Amino acid sequence: MGHLSTHVLDTAHGCPAAGMRVTLQRVLADGRTETVKQIKLNADGRNDGGPLLDAQAMAVGRWRLLFEVAPYFRGRGVALSEPAFIDTVQLDFGIADAAGHYHVPLLVSPFSYSTYRGS
Description:
The chain is mainly beta. Helices cover 6% and strands 45% of the residues. A four-stranded mixed beta sheet has the order 2-1-7-8, with no helix packed on it. A four-stranded antiparallel beta sheet has the order 4-3-5-6. The longest helix is centred in the middle third of the chain and has 7 residues, at 69-75. The relative contact order is 0.28.
């Protein structure tokens, strides 16, 4: 049973990115996007409602996660330049196996980020 999940860690403060807003979009064949879900991360830096996509919603194709980084750090009282060096992190990824488990974590600070396919 496949599903998609995410987890965000604030590496500047050494904690989960509680309160960060995240948007999940499906990237259509013509390049347009369709918003599937918008969430606010819980105290553990995860989605309160479980997976972003459950087994029924999983689908092969191109997907995009948008992480609202600058608003999150400003909300924590971090003084950022205007415009911020990193505003929104856009991660485009593919789901090749709808029965697979896709975990897309983000490690982020106001000046850097990294991601990988987690387990």
